[in-house]
């Protein structure tokens, strides 16, 4: 160890203070880190600190530990309490918790082992951790991380990467270094999560979402216009297919072009998961967007088991079963019924009827019916005031029906042209359509080749798809996977990979919170512990020396309970 002079400007003057610095060796050569800031020292103070740092030449004498072990005899000084102050407040709790989760998942070991070292000044393994921690704690752009967020946290103390070494170009290059290891990362996480939480991957839930770009994304073949779940049809987008376990723990994902249709992604994602993890006796669960005869044949060809949502049009085949009274109630307001498949004994259909869903769909039909009728009245009045052409009125009626398609089938509209060329409009409501809507509202259909399960078990497995939907909500709201500002294809893929890794940390925290009996909201735990800070306490003494100590703020009672229940322990002082 040695002492080093440091300088800073304050109120237009240059002030000097001293720091105790330690040299240590790494695979990339010698490095240095600050052990303690010593403030302003006179000559005697500098000699004393230097002697303590270099140690006694007598081999029988042992150097005192700085942070652990038996403390030396206390030395008392007089402190000017009116001039005591706290400086350099840094966010500590959030980044520290994120790094603890990374260590539980052994991601730091994976990064060090997998990302090959080069001539870089800061290892890419550390920069990858910076990206993931920032995405979990304060999702923002790489530029914001470099210029603002990293400097406001204690990550330079926790990771040993100085703030001046973190800039946007280095973060972009860290994305490039991380992306080639996507498949190995997913395999590592599957194995580690299974060890930590005893997860089973017998039931795999698959769903697709989209996320849009800000900018043209020219030259990126994945950036296309398609059906936008974000209501941003004006922007190009990519689609993300995510596979999760029945408890919502992510297993893997793939990125597709923005104009792909959900149903076309299922064979590719199934083949990818089987190539990566082998063929096992798994059950694939997907919503009705994955349903097609081609996909059914694909799943059957590999002796794969599945539970898929069937199209709403398929309900018409089961009209008699809807009218029958042999429903099985599995909970208040929900009934199911097992129906044989019209195509043969290899499959079964599960008819489900929800009271809450019935009320919701009936209210939607009423609302759209009122809208259509109101607009048709407006068109009829307009036809009386002006001699509209039939083609114009046809287009207006078509536009009304397209915007209110839920109840469009109820109306039979006739647009005619009179002898003087003036268009007239009449309409009537179809009782048969209303009767069918009343019967089928709140009903939906599942299709499966799992024949040894009860209808209740099949429904419970299908309803787990809400875990995949929740994963997308967290990606978009808490981790801000949207919008994508990157334009290059590889940077887009790396951005999504970092968001995926942050979601794994989120779900790991979720599991720890649940196991500790702390509820079901990891965001509240993260927000609470993020209020723990690191500060520099400065104590001016009578002899003119300032004692400067870097400390972690004392947890509140609530924070202490959270830490104790989850088995986490804050470092007493700065962690070396």
Give a quick rundown of the structure:
This protein is α+β, with helices and mostly antiparallel strands and 576 residues long. Helices cover 41% and strands 22% of the residues.
How many beta strands in the DSSP annotation? Answer: 17
Structural class: alpha+beta
Instruction: Tell me the major beta sheet.
Output: 9 strands, mixed
Look up the CATH topology of the domain at 199-303 and 450-487: Nucleotidyltransferase, domain 5
CATH architectural type of the domain at 199-303 and 450-487:
2-Layer Sandwich
> What is the helix fraction of residues, given as a range?
40-55%
Count of helical segments?
A: 19
Which descriptor suits the 3D outline? elongated
What does the radius of gyration come to? 32 Å
Oligomer: single chain
The first-to-last residue Cα distance is 14 Å
CATH class of the domain at 199-303 and 450-487: Alpha Beta
Low-confidence blocks of residues: 56-70
Mean pLDDT: 88
Beta fraction: 15-25%
Spatial order of the strands forming the largest sheet? 7-6-5-8-9-15-12-11-10
